[in-house]
Write a structure and sequence with these properties.
globular, mainly alpha, 21 helices, 3% strand, two-stranded antiparallel ribbon
Length: 514
């Protein structure tokens, strides 16, 4: 047990900042932005403290905080940190400040914008650290409120429709998940993730659920939880809310939605479905593999058809997150089969965790680049509305190029490592799935290189023919940290893998179903 509630500080410091901004009346926009930035940086500072005391060799949660909360429901306020959680807390601590900086001069009512952004940050951190479903679900649902208002109040012309679509889809999925966990609680008397995982591991969870509602009850509950998580990622074909939400959201919100919030769904697959429902996940893995391949291939080919740069990056996010699900479902598909390769499973799972982190950096940077194009041209972001940006703004082009090629998976940049490990693992577990997924790699190369060639190369044309400034001082603070991490993690991925290798090894060692 940790004597200092570090994890509570991580979660609730952004909420305290949001409350402070709400009470701060009469402050200048600059003061409001500065206060929001300071509180957003608290996550990065505290995550570095956690990193210093974190023992990668331990797979059990660390810095655990556990207090009785609602005795009648056996609900506990329970927080804990393992390698997966630490990775996502670090990602949140990096993306949130740069997303706020990207919004520094563009957003009206800086006080409300900053307060909503800090609420969104705190809710995401609560999802990554809670170990009991009740507080976890509260944070999960709470994240919808600030995200809805950030899109609706500061978004583009179609923001209202996109915001409502986002909330309706997510709440609809969450209703299924809540019903599933309510049934789990009635059958088992607990909503603690670790306890439920132990019950699943020894086979008693299936027995309790069968006694409660019949032999198929486990699959029914699994389906409810699956739908809630699938909408959040999103898993194809539950993806239709994402392109308009990301495209209409203001730049900073788009950066956070793709960089952090989309990881909440993948995190739920790893934290809930993977350990608590291994049998049903294995049984459904063939169909789920097909859906993940739909996201990989159709997401990339849909991105290739876009002329709106923001929608292009949004569809790219569907493609890249589907790689994570492809790896997870391939491992589940191999579980219990003759001769499963624990080495291939470990590679696939390591790639999934790295892809979550690295995609957060590259996708946030790409949305920042599109936002800077919009800011320079009065809102233009069409693929055919630019030309010769490299000539007009060479430094800007260079920074955007690194982000683009990181998303493409160029060796030497961070995006390559996760994708390579995913394909290395999936080829060893299901070669056909990996071969089909290569079509997504081809389409990704086509649309990103088209983006790079038409916007940045050739003679200056369209919106680039007039005054087109290179990177401004504040914009360096947004792009340079992200680009620097892409370069560093591309050549030194062990900085991240050392945090997750023991956890991944433990996961890969449990390929036999109970």
């Amino acid at each position: 047990m940790s004597t200092l509630p570090l994890l509570s500080l991580v979660v609730f410091t952004p909420f305290a900042g949001a409350a402070g901004l709400g009470l701060l009346r009469g402050a200048s926009p600059a003061a409001s932005r500065a206060l929001a930035l300071i509180f957003s940086l608290s996550t990065l500072a505290l995550s570095l403290v956690l990193l210093g005391g974190f023992d990668p060799a331990r797979t059990a949660p660390q810095f655990v905080e556990r207090h009785a909360w609602i005795a009648a429901l056996n609900v506990n306020y329970s927080l804990g940190l393992d390698g997966l959680s630490l990775l996502l807390v670090l990602l949140t601590g990096i993306v949130t400040p740069v997303a706020l900086l990207a919004s520094a001069k563009a957003e009206r009512d800086s006080r409300l914008f900053g307060a909503l952004f800090l609420m969104l940050q705190g809710a995401a951190l609560g999802v990554f650290l809670a170990l009991d479903f009740f507080p976890w679900f509260l944070f999960w649902e709470l994240s919808l409120v600030p995200a809805f208002f950030l899109i609706k109040l500061w978004g583009g012309q179609g923001a209202t429709r996109a915001a409502y679509q986002f909330v309706i889809y997510t709440i609809g999925g969450s209703a299924f998940m809540l019903a599933g966990f309510a049934a789990l609680f009635v059958a088992t008397g607990t909503m603690d993730f670790n306890t439920l995982a132990q019950l699943a591991a020894d086979g008693s969870l299936a027995q309790k659920l069968a006694a409660f509602g019949g032999g198929n009850w486990t699959k029914v509950i699994f389906l409810g939880v699956l739908i809630g998580l699938a909408v959040k990622v999103p898993l194809w074909p539950f993806h239709t809310w994402l392109p308009p939400a990301y495209a209409e959201a203001p730049t900073g919100a788009s950066m956070f939605l793709t960089g952090v919030m989309s990881k909440m769904g993948v995190y739920g697959f790893l934290r809930i479905l993977w350990p608590i429902f291994p049998g049903p996940l294995h049984d459904a893995s063939c169909w789920l593999l097909a859906l993940a391949l739909g996201g990989v291939v159709l997401g990339a080919w849909s991105a290739m058809r876009q002329t709106d740069l923001k929608r292009m990056v949004a569809y790219s996010s569907i493609n890249h997150l589907s790689y994570c699900l492809l790896a997870l479902f391939a491992v589940s598909y191999a579980t219990g089969r003759a001769g499963p390769s624990s080495e291939a499973a470990a590679a696939a799972l390591s790639g999934t965790l790295l892809q979550m982190f690295n995609h957060g950096l590259s996708a946030a940077a790409l949305f920042a680049c599109v936002g800077m194009l919009e800011a320079r041209t009065g809102g233009k972001r069409g693929l055919h509305e630019f030309g010769g940006v490299r000539t007009a703004a060479p430094i800007f082009a260079g920074l955007c190029g690194v982000a683009m090629f990181s998303s493409l998976g160029l060796p030497g940049l961070n995006g390559f490592v996760g994708e390579f490990l995913i394909f290395r693992g999936v080829f060893g577990l299901n070669a056909w799935a990996a071969a089909i997924a290569c079509l997504g790699l081809l389409a990704t190369a086509l649309f990103l290189l088209t983006f790079w060639q038409r916007v940045f190369h050739g003679p200056r044309a369209g919106a680039t023919t007039g005054v087109f400034a290179d990177v401004q001082p504040g914009e360096y603070l947004t792009l340079v940290p992200l680009v620097a991490l892409m370069l560093v993690l591309g050549v030194a991925p062990h900085l991240l893998t050392r945090l997750i290798n023991p956890l991944v090894t433990a996961w890969a060692g449990h390929l036999t179903l109970p």
